[in-house]
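Ligand-bound model needed. magnesium ion.
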Amino acid sequence: MQTLYLSADAPGCAETAAEIIRRGGLVAIPTETVYGLGANGLDETAVARIFEAKGRPQDNPLILHVAAPEEMESICHDIPPAAYALAKAYWPGPLTMVLPVKDIVPKRTTAGLDTVAVRCPDCAITRAIIRLSGVPIAAPSANLSGKPSTTTAEHVRHDHDGRIDAIVDGGPCRVGLESTIVDLTADRPRLLRPGGITPEQLTKVLGDLVVDKAVTAQIDKDAVVRAPGMKYRHYAPQEPVVIVAGSREKAAAYIRSHFEPGDRVLCFQEELPLYAGCDPLAYGEEADVNTLSAGLFAALRELDDPSIHKVYARCPTGGGVAYAVQNRLKKAAAFHIVNAEECL
Ligand code: TXA
Ligand code: MG
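Prediction:
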């Protein structure tokens, strides 16, 4: 198959992409979080092609993307007031809500659950594609299953060239981490995945938030969890990643004393001079957490290289968007963290 490349600015881009979605094809779409691998979310055969292209386990449900907040009503029932309040505050934006699903959505999209994840992305071209296709678009992150998510069209080309119908190039993703997921179907709202909408922002609207244990700890692959995707090995390069916590100086001393040829260091821009000779790669500035979230997956992809033995990584501290960056890095490291303050 020849993959069609469409620039988001080119005339007719949204029409062409929507036409492919309508006939059951696969189109990689940009969003403010990461690129998604999109198909008609109401067409079981089209959805099956997503799972096949990604190599995604069948028990891992997809997010349905809508062009406008009120469209959630066509795929969800018994929508609580909290969902309307969150949509008003943060949609379009990097927030996904889990709500009771209507029968119109095929079981393959929801992996047989009685709930569905819904999101209205903050990306004009993708909302235009959804609107023109006339259906909600099911889209997981466009990476091959288990690989770091795709934050540029080039990442998608690398994983899927010749295997999907089209790629819409909307430039690099602004947030760079997948959306925040909040489950509104239980007694209390539950954070299933942190992202660009922070726990603080959710609590401000909801007044309450439980953090699911899949966010804070490694989940056994056979466990029954609320967000099936959270139990799979994620975001990780092939080699082991170790997070080194502690002050800039103590961490550098620890890493420099353990560093061996073939290892790499993933650090903040400000720390590059501390790692001369250790092949450091900066993923953003510690002083601006948005650069860290935007740069993390591209860096993890660059480090996904069989010639690398081990990666020592530096992780931002604190809440807000840093909480989401910590979550992805900890997952990439399989929660392997050493505290340099205690090691020296
Ligand atoms: O930012 C994003 O959310 C991106 C872009 C493309 O929108 N999409 C994305 O999709 O990250 P994916 O498939 O990589 O991650 C979706 C996560 C998975 O962990 C999945 O298990 C969970 O959402 N999920 C989907 N439906 C669910 C449901 N009904 N209940 C609980 N978790 C659900
Ligand atoms: Mg994903």
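The first strand starts at residue 4 and ends at 7.
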